[in-house]
C-alpha cells in the first residue's frame, strides 16, 4: 500500500520563515525556547492545583487551560489556583470561573449563559440524574457523544 500525503500550503520551514519575517521585533523570542519554559511552569502550577485539591479530597479535573470541579467548590478552586500560581511564579494572578458548556448552551449569549449558570448555582441538582434515570440512549444517543461517535465512524469508514 502506497500512502502519500498531499501538501496543503507551505512547508514547516517556509511557514516559520514567514512568521519570523512578519514578527521581526520578537523573532528572537519566538525561537528562544521561552514557550517550553512557560509550558513547564504551567505544568508545575497545574500539578500543584490538582495535588492540593486532592489533599482536600476534592477532585479537580484538568482540561486544557482549565479545571473542572463540582459547582460548590468553585471558590475553593479559585483560591487554590491563585496560591499555586504565587508559589510557582512568585506573583499574583486573577482567575475566571465559568460553568461548563453543554450542547444546549452553544449559541447562547453571555447573558443567557450567565442566567443558566446562576440557575445551576441556586439549584445544584439541576441536570443531575440518578442511575435509574440513565440509559444507553440518554448517555450515547442524545449527547455530544453522539456527535463524537458519528464523526469517528465517518472517519473510520473513509480510512479503513
Please describe what this structure looks like.
The longest helix has 22 residues, at 34-55. This protein folds into three domains: 11-96, no CATH class; 98-128; 129-160. 55% of the residues lie in helices and 4% in strands. The chain has helices at residues 12-22, 27-30, 34-55, 74-89, 110-122, 136-141, 144-159, and strands spanning 61-63, 66-68. It has 160 residues and is mostly helical. The chain contains seven helices and two strands, in the order H-H-H-E-E-H-H-H-H.
How many domains? The number is 3
- Main-sheet strand order equals 1-2
Assembly context of the chains: single chain
End-to-end separation in angstroms reads 12 Å
Largest sheet: 2 strands, antiparallel
Helix fraction, binned, reads 55-70%
Q: What descriptors fit this protein?
A:
7 helices, 160 residues, extended, 3 domains, single chain, two-stranded antiparallel ribbon, mainly alpha, 4% strand, 2 strands
Give the SSE map.
Layout (H helix, E strand, L loop, with lengths): L11 H11 L4 H4 L3 H22 L5 E3 L2 E3 L5 H16 L20 H13 L13 H6 L2 H16 L1
Antiparallel strand pairs: 1-2
